Amino acid sequence: MQETPRNTGRRTGSARRRILDAAARRFYADGIAATGIDTVTAEAGVAKMSLYNNFASKSALVEAVLEARHTEWLALYARRSRRAADPITRVLAVFDAYADQAALVVDGFRGCGLLNAAGELPAGDAAREVVRRHEEEVEGILAAGLRELTERSRADRLATHLSLLVEGAMVRSGLRGDRARLRDARNIAVDLLTAL
Description:
Blueprint: H1 15-30, H2 37-44, H3 48-54, H4 58-83, H5 87-103, H6 113-120, H7 126-146, H8 152-176, H9 180-194
Helix pairs in contact: 1-2, 1-4, 4-5, 4-7, 5-7, 5-9, 6-7, 7-8, 8-9
């Protein structure tokens, strides 16, 4: 999610939006477990009751933050995909959308917020399901683009490979605190796609 200045005491936007934005910043920067509701409400400039009027629990807030992050990525991908002139560029738009989302982080790049969250959440958690659906949708987007370039079974296998490549690049980039591995992954994808 995009970094914005810390709360200055001015109330702008809906309480729900302020809570989501504050939670997204804190969960990404500090982790879900390390971020208490008091921290979120203080940064959002709202009362704790306002948070619970908008979200049934911290778990519901986490799920909403991850849904928003997924929606943000889809919008970044859609913008890149609309400008793509050919199937290869549409497939590469997946990598570009991850790089665009990473560029929204002003300070303290830590990799993919969805994957980071999944690492903190127990199996079966509803918010973890959001991450699983995101990964499936990304792989489906890759497969659809690749089917324009090669036969279905080969496209589906390559979609799995590219999905693992981009996820691994996000993890490695997050560990290093830079986006270089995203560029490397895109270059590897170009090599694989031009060999089709």
